[in-house]
Prior knowledge:
Layout: H1 16-81, H2 84-98, H3 102-115, H4 119-126, H5 129-139, H6 151-156, E1 157-164, E2 169-172, H7 185-191, E3 199-206, E4 211-221, E5 228-237, H8 238-246, E6 250-251, E7 255-261, E8 266-268, H9 284-287, E9 293-297, E10 308-314, H10 316-321, E11 331-336, H11 339-342, H12 344-391, H13 405-425, H14 427-451, E12 456-459, E13 465-468, H15 470-476, H16 487-490, H17 495-506, H18 511-521, H19 533-536, E14 542-545, E15 548-557, E16 566-573, H20 575-620, H21 624-649, H22 654-657, E17 661-664, H23 665-677, E18 684-690, E19 696-699, H24 701-719, E20 722-732, E21 735-742, H25 749-752, H26 772-782, E22 786-791, E23 797-804
Parallel strand pairs: 18-20
Antiparallel strand pairs: 1-2, 1-5, 3-4, 4-5, 6-7, 7-8, 7-11, 9-10, 10-11, 12-13, 12-16, 14-15, 15-16, 17-19, 20-21, 21-23, 22-23
Amino acid sequence: MTExxxxxxxxxxxxxxxxxxxxxxxxxxxxxxVGLGMAFWQGSQEIREVSGESFAxxxxxxARKLDLLLAxxxxxxxxxxxxxxxxxxxxxxxxxxxxxKKSTTALTDLEQRWRARDAAAIKSITDNPxxxxxxxxxxxxxxxxxQLLPHVVRSSTKMLFLTDAxxxxxxxxxxxxxxxxQNTQWWQGAFxxxxxxxxxxxxxFDDQVNAYVFSxxxxxxxxxxxxxxxxLHRVIDAKEFFSPATHVTRFxxxxxxxxxxxxxxxxxxxxxxxxxxxxxxxxxxLVTPQHPGWVQASSDGHGGQxxxxxxxxxxxxxxxxxxxxxxxxSWHTFVWQSSDELFAPIRHLFTWVTAFGAVxxxxxxxxxxxxxxxxxxxxxxxxxxxxxxxxxxxRTPIQIHTGDELEDLAEEFNRMNQQLKxxxxxxxxxxxxxxxxxxxxxxxxxxxxxxVPTPILLIDAHEVVRYINQAARESFKVQEPMSGASLFTxxxxxxxxxxxxxxxxxxxxxxSSAAAEIERETVPRDPLVPCADHESxxxxxxxxxxxxxxxxxxFRLPARPGEEDSIGLVLRDTTDxxxxxxxxxxxxxxxxxxxxxxxxxHELNNPLFGIIGLGEAIQEEQDLEHIRTCARxxxxxxxxxxxxxxxxxxxxxxxxxxxxxxxxxxxxLDQVLATAQTTVEMKDIxxxxxxxxxxxxxxxxxxxxxxxxxxxxxxxxxxKGTGTLTLATAVSDHTATAxxxxxxxxISKPHLSKVFDPFFTTKGQGEGSGLGLTVARRIIRKFxxxxxxxxxxxxxxTCIVTLPISSPMSPEGGPWTASASRxxxxxxxxx
Length: 831
């Protein structure tokens, strides 16, 4: 009872007082933070929605005003286009052009002098009656009283000129315009195939006036309003024209209205210059729909990356004429205010509420400190009393008078102290009883281990055997009593095995780590020198002791407190099992040799019959060319026999050096059919082919032909000379499928599950070895494919070969021709 209870070092944990204060702070701070966050979020949402609706309404109103402004200017320009004097002059030019070739020559000469900036040519156009009339309309001579053009409109108009029905310049206020305009987009849009249409051109930079401009083009109709006789074109400075209407609409410090086109190009803006695009291209489709509204965007279009609320609205009447139609282009108002300015009120409110919250947190901390002191003081008294009880030194009862659960806990401590004193009195008797139980348990354990027929040894950290059971004493001839005998004194092992066991012992029985350590320490040996018995086991957990073989296993045995753990070694005699295993391996080798021999005989049988049949045909053949063909086939069969022998016997591992090549599956099938016709009788067998085309597969061609010859030969033999042989190919996804079907009697259901077993055959004695399908499936699976047999008794058999498709490079053996599949004369043979 003299142990001192351990306590955590200072600073590694929080005291109860700190936890009480923290709990009170959390109770006050968490609702405050949640409330502030919800209020800020809700306020931001409401400001965003109210501002968005306001911006949308302001954008709609601004769009309406700009639409009216443009409509008024279009109406002013239309009064010029409808002037009778202009119409008569353009009609006369139209009529004169139709019946005068001299006018064409004169126009060409005038165009050249205009381009050369000839003073006479310029004066002939700028001072003619039509140009004078344009000046008069521009200055207000022909305007009704009180309807003069405003000064802003006059100053923003950079060019005003008139063209005839051929796009030729006929009147202008300045010398800036080009002479011909029939190929310009605005002229084509206003002329509109002589029907005429209002055309408003998007903002662009004009080099002639050195400013960003837009233009209004109106057709001049003839006196009958039937066709266009000219086009009136007005070029207007976009900034000067729209700034009086857009720059006056300001709210706050940053709020303003701007005008953009459907490509996001600024037409008029108090902040951005005319002609520049919006800074964020992703913003353009959000603010240019064909309906008014507002959007919350991730940028403001003015170079800022903060979240912004933007109102927008199209100019419906103007957009219908922009670039010819509303589909080709439209103009939109853009209403925006800085997010910092927009959300400033809610942020100020949040700042004040945060300040008040900080004051509340300070008050909570003060109250928590006082409350924690009233709770922690009696708890510390209880803590000191508990330590005294643990040391058995509590002499006086604990005195706590709080009138709550802490006082009840103090009384429970006093009661526990009295009970411990009574319990310690009988502790000595309990210790004696437990000691006797441990001794009985140890004796029982020794008896159980002695009864186990497997040798068991317990070794301490110094490789000294502390215990050995009866089976081990009998196996290793150990006499009792043992006095510090070493493990390797009891087990007669050579030096290498002792070193291995010592390495495993140092790693507490971890055989993998011990094996790695042995590999590092062992001197490299000549791999051609035969290994000893113990080395042949490699790193297997086996020991050779005398004539016996033992499988061993380490286990860790925990020791008593204050002592080192010991390692246990269990040895199991596996001598009889090892001898039986060797006998089974030898039997398996003998069986494999029989399968190999039978397989060679089976695979050599078909090409051998082909050679015999072709030899018989040569004896009676008079045609030299046919004899040569038969000779080539005999050579091919011979090479195939050599390949079969090489593949079966493994004299050279060709697959380790050769690479699979892409070939056409249909070509291989035709070659297989030609080969089969030389080995089996097929005169009365009809052959049907259904090919998908040229299907490339990646294989060893000789081996694939060997497998397919076995399938075709089996099909022909099953039909016994008469029937139908069907060859088909199909392609699906990345798989090629070859189908070989016969009309024979089929395979019975009990036999169908055994067709791939080695030496299984339904043929008579001497007709087959039962290895054809086994070898064929082995070859096909080697190429990543598979072979399936489907058969219904009485309805024939179908062999389905699936192979992965490959991109063809060059078919094996060069280009294939139809002559390779030609039927040869059928020699007589026996099967």
